[in-house]
Design brief:
By secondary structure, the chain is mainly α. It is 71% helix and 3% strand. A two-stranded parallel ribbon has the order 1-2. It starts with a helix and ends in an 8-residue tail after the last helix.
């Protein structure tokens, strides 16, 4: 019986881990829901292009929406249903997408970019500390220092 309870406890812990991992992925994979009026107009045009395009063009539009505007269609649509400009207007009308002034959006983007840069620096430092990665900037500095002190050994000269 004790053997079974140990397995149940392990399974429960694993289940909790999976739940927390899913929550983490959901939280960190979401795009923005606040845009300027100009961005909404451009997103609407891109969605019209997506609806009329070939499969490749649709992929390119979705990529542009994700990378340029941090707009993930999956955050706003019902799975399996095409998301078009009318759905975008409906999301704005219902308040799922908020329209803010340009200055507020730019400040938001700046804060987000700074946070991403800090997170990336932290990930890089952790990878270097654990031995999973090499600090290429430090290697470059050592390389430059070596050839500064030994110019006759510099390759290609």
């Amino acid at each position: 019986m004790a053997d079974n309870s140990g397995r149940v406890a392990r399974d429960f812990i694993f289940y909790c881990y999976l739940c927390l991992r899913i929550i983490y992925i959901i939280i960190h994979s979401m795009g923005r829901n606040k845009f300027s009026q100009r961005e909404i107009e451009i997103i609407g045009k891109l969605l019209r292009r997506k609806m009329a395009g070939t499969r490749f063009q649709q992929k390119m539009v979705r990529h542009t929406l994700r990378t340029t505007f941090e707009f993930n269609i999956a955050d706003f649509n019902i799975q399996g249903k095409a998301f078009g400009p009318e759905d975008l207007d409906e999301c704005v009308r219902r308040g799922r997408i908020q329209i803010l002034d340009d200055a507020t959006i730019e400040a938001m983007k700046q804060r987000h970019a700074e946070k991403r840069q800090r997170d990336e620096a932290l990930r890089q430092a952790e990878a270097v500390a654990s031995g999973d990665a090499v600090d290429w900037q430090e290697v470059q500095r050592q390389w430059d220092e070596y050839y500064k002190n030994n110019p006759e050994e510099q390759p290609g000269l």
